[in-house]
């Protein structure tokens, strides 16, 4: 069923323009980050790594990178363990109101981030958690964990429940069955959720803006502060490195997706 | 069976507790704070108790004057007068100075207080200040929710619009709604042909095109907004290109305008419109199209009567997602938008950090949540499905 040639040409032209619009700003940032001078002009007048050198030697950027990774790793661990456990629980359990429970647990996804952030700031201040690393990790986990939950729930749809019955009939206690039968079978889903959780935490900005203490700068927060203060190509070097991270996350998630679909179609 | 359910509950409980404690309860507290009125009750408990028994006619009894003089001096001494002064000043500008002046007078005030207070400030001799103090006794107030819609309550309790030069929030909500709808419309209109084309491309081109949508989807909102900030500078590449092509005589101020906000929001949110549409279209059963063709439908008819209706759930899901993210987006408008053209989110952040008026931040949050909730409910009714997916906004 083919489209009219003229329609097809128009559609392809529009698509190419839209895709170019989507990609162009990021490509421009990548190119400008190699600018030899502070001038950010296109086409560039040479290539230099001085802004990357600046990024790697400036104390505040190094510290922000370290903070970002500490928070992202802690968030990923917490979100992956809690999200996976809950997803397996939701799959195993036979009770009513499951859909409502999933909606409740994924509510942070559709709540405006500013409302989440402001609410956490109110409440965490009362609990003495505002401005602490624990508070920041908790805040990031709340918005990262729904992705883990959904990824693992999706993979569990393809899990053969007979395997659990087989494990039980062989005398495996439920905990062992989950750890040694369920988890090894659904690991691509768990890993995909973990990748999404890591990416979410690394990019998270609004919640960090409210919850982080005066000295707790993450990469996005440092970027935002620098842009408002004085724009230098060092910011673009940071943006390019974050962009590189998201490319790696995309590759990882696609590889995991291929793996889990191949598993279900033997 | 019973044992399995116990196990399931044990597995779900930790996450449920986390979401409950660090998300649902905090958001609930915010909604509560939008209507809570505690400042007067905390700072001036005796005054509040005396005023609770006052019928609102004439002036309150001498005990009320005595209580307010004593308690104001005490909270000033304890350095906790800020909250109640701000709360009353929000009720009516100028009440802060009244309370502070009275508190500072402290020991110099002598019985009968009804006379010494009025001598200090004539406003204590008017019923209005007392009525407002009485009404601020709590535990609940509609003050913030009313003010966040440009309404106020007079001393007699009658609701009216605030003075024209102080009106702000109705315009703000309309502006937020308008910008979000505009961005949603542009995203849907651009996304549909793209999703359609990608769904009908052959491998490997379909994968290549899809990857070009997924790359921006995965990269951070802040990185992409920063990119626009750089590109749209006065000396930046966009202005350079426009001048170079002769379209502009001199570089234009694009940053800080509505155009910059819409441009950045469309760029950030477009993948959220394309992906749901694409996923619906790739699962669309091609036999329907062939059936339509065999019944003699031409290309336009096939599209309008088969493809379009079948792909509408994807349009609804994508559009709803874009709208939800647009109304709640803080980063992009804050960075590339102008200070006088900001959205609700910016005001929430400002009330939180600059004005430290948590009641107003909470009231605006409540309305923003209501807007999002309405969109989710509407989408559910229209499509019978759920809005799922999310963004790192």
TrEMBL record, chain A:
<feature type="transmembrane region" description="Helical">
    <location>
        <begin position="12"/>
        <end position="34"/>
    </location>
</feature>
<keyword id="KW-0997">Cell inner membrane</keyword>
<feature type="domain" description="ABC transmembrane type-1">
    <location>
        <begin position="65"/>
        <end position="253"/>
    </location>
</feature>
<keyword id="KW-0472">Membrane</keyword>
<keyword id="KW-1003">Cell membrane</keyword>
<feature type="transmembrane region" description="Helical">
    <location>
        <begin position="230"/>
        <end position="252"/>
    </location>
</feature>
<dbReference type="InterPro" id="IPR035906">
    <property type="entry name" value="MetI-like_sf"/>
</dbReference>
<dbReference type="Pfam" id="PF00528">
    <property type="entry name" value="BPD_transp_1"/>
</dbReference>
<keyword id="KW-0813">Transport</keyword>
<comment type="similarity">
    <text>Belongs to the binding-protein-dependent transport system permease family.</text>
</comment>
<feature type="transmembrane region" description="Helical">
    <location>
        <begin position="69"/>
        <end position="92"/>
    </location>
</feature>
<protein>
    <submittedName>
        <fullName>ABC transporter permease</fullName>
    </submittedName>
</protein>
<keyword id="KW-0812">Transmembrane</keyword>
<feature type="transmembrane region" description="Helical">
    <location>
        <begin position="130"/>
        <end position="156"/>
    </location>
</feature>
<feature type="transmembrane region" description="Helical">
    <location>
        <begin position="99"/>
        <end position="124"/>
    </location>
</feature>
<dbReference type="InterPro" id="IPR000515">
    <property type="entry name" value="MetI-like"/>
</dbReference>
<keyword id="KW-1133">Transmembrane helix</keyword>
<feature type="transmembrane region" description="Helical">
    <location>
        <begin position="177"/>
        <end position="199"/>
    </location>
</feature>
Automatic annotation (TrEMBL), chain B:
<keyword id="KW-1003">Cell membrane</keyword>
<feature type="transmembrane region" description="Helical">
    <location>
        <begin position="356"/>
        <end position="378"/>
    </location>
</feature>
<feature type="transmembrane region" description="Helical">
    <location>
        <begin position="177"/>
        <end position="196"/>
    </location>
</feature>
<protein>
    <submittedName>
        <fullName>ABC transporter permease</fullName>
    </submittedName>
</protein>
<keyword id="KW-0812">Transmembrane</keyword>
<keyword id="KW-0472">Membrane</keyword>
<comment type="similarity">
    <text>Belongs to the binding-protein-dependent transport system permease family. CysTW subfamily.</text>
</comment>
<dbReference type="InterPro" id="IPR035906">
    <property type="entry name" value="MetI-like_sf"/>
</dbReference>
<dbReference type="InterPro" id="IPR000515">
    <property type="entry name" value="MetI-like"/>
</dbReference>
<feature type="transmembrane region" description="Helical">
    <location>
        <begin position="208"/>
        <end position="232"/>
    </location>
</feature>
<feature type="transmembrane region" description="Helical">
    <location>
        <begin position="252"/>
        <end position="275"/>
    </location>
</feature>
<feature type="domain" description="ABC transmembrane type-1">
    <location>
        <begin position="173"/>
        <end position="379"/>
    </location>
</feature>
<keyword id="KW-0813">Transport</keyword>
<feature type="transmembrane region" description="Helical">
    <location>
        <begin position="312"/>
        <end position="336"/>
    </location>
</feature>
<dbReference type="Pfam" id="PF00528">
    <property type="entry name" value="BPD_transp_1"/>
</dbReference>
<keyword id="KW-1133">Transmembrane helix</keyword>
């Amino acid at each position: 069923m083919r489209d009219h040639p003229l329609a097809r040409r128009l559609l392809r032209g529009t698509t190419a323009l839209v895709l170019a619009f989507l990609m162009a700003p990021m490509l421009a940032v990548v190119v400008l980050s190699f600018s030899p001078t502070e001038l950010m002009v296109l086409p560039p007048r040479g290539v230099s790594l001085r802004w990357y050198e600046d990024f790697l030697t400036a104390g505040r950027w190094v510290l922000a990178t370290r903070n970002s990774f500490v928070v992202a790793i802690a968030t990923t661990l917490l979100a992956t363990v809690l999200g996976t456990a809950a997803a397996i629980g939701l799959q195993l359990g036979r009770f009513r109101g499951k859909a409502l429970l999933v909606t409740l647990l994924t509510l942070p996804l559709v709540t405006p981030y500013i409302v989440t952030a402001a609410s956490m700031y109110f409440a965490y201040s009362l609990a003495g958690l505002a401005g602490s690393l624990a508070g920041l990790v908790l805040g990031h986990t709340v918005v990262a964990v729904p992705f883990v939950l959904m990824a693992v729930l999706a993979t569990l749809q393809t899990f053969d429940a007979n395997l659990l019955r087989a494990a039980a009939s062989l005398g495996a206690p439920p905990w062992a069955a989950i750890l040694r039968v369920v988890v090894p079978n659904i690991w691509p889903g768990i890993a995909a959720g973990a990748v999404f959780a890591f990416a979410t935490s690394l990019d998270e900005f609004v919640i960090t803006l409210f919850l982080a203490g005066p000295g707790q700068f993450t990469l996005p927060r440092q970027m935002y502060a620098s842009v408002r203060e004085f724009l230098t190509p060092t910011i673009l070097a940071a943006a390019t490195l974050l962009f590189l991270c998201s490319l790696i996350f995309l590759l990882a998630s696609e590889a995991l997706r291929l793996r889990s679909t191949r598993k279900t179609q033997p | 069976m019973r044992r399995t359910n116990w196990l399931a509950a044990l597995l779900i409980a930790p996450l449920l507790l986390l979401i409950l404690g660090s998300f649902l309860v905090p958001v609930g507290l915010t909604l509560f704070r939008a209507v809570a009125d505690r400042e007067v009750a905390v700072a001036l408990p005796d005054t509040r108790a005396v005023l609770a028994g006052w019928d609102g006619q004439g002036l309150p009894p001498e005990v009320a004057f005595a209580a307010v003089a004593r308690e104001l001096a005490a909270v000033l001494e304890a350095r906790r007068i800020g909250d109640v002064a701000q709360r009353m000043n929000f009720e009516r500008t100028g009440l802060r100075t009244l309370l502070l002046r009275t508190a500072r007078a402290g020991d110099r005030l002598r019985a009968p207080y009804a006379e010494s207070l009025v001598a200090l400030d004539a406003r204590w001799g008017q019923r209005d200040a007392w009525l407002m103090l009485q009404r601020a006794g709590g535990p609940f107030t509609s003050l913030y929710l009313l003010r966040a819609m440009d309404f106020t309550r007079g001393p007699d309790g009658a609701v009216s619009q605030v003075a024209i030069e102080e009106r702000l929030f109705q315009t703000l909500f309309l502006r937020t709604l308008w910008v979000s709808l505009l961005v949603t419309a542009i995203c849907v209109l651009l996304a549909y042909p793209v999703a359609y084309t990608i769904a009908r491309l052959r491998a490997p081109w379909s994968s290549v095109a899809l990857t070009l949508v997924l790359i921006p989807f995965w990269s951070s909102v802040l990185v992409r907004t920063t990119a626009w900030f750089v590109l749209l500078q006065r000396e930046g590449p966009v202005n350079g290109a426009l001048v170079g092509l002769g379209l502009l005589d001199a570089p234009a101020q694009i940053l800080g305008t509505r155009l910059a906000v819409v441009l950045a929001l469309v760029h950030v949110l477009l993948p959220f419109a394309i992906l749901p549409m694409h996923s619906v279209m790739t699962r669309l059963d091609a036999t329907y199209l062939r059936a339509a063709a065999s019944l003699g439908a031409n290309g336009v008819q096939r599209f309008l009567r088969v493809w379009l209706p079948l792909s509408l759930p994807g349009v609804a899901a994508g559009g709803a997602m874009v709208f939800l993210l647009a109304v709640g987006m803080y980063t992009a408008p804050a960075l590339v938008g102008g200070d006088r053209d900001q959205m609700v989110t910016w005001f929430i952040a400002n009330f939180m950090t600059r004005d430290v008026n948590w009641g107003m931040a909470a009231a605006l949050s409540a309305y923003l949540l209501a807007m999002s909730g309405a969109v989710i409910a509407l989408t559910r009714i229209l499509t019978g499905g759920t809005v799922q997916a999310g963004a790192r906004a």
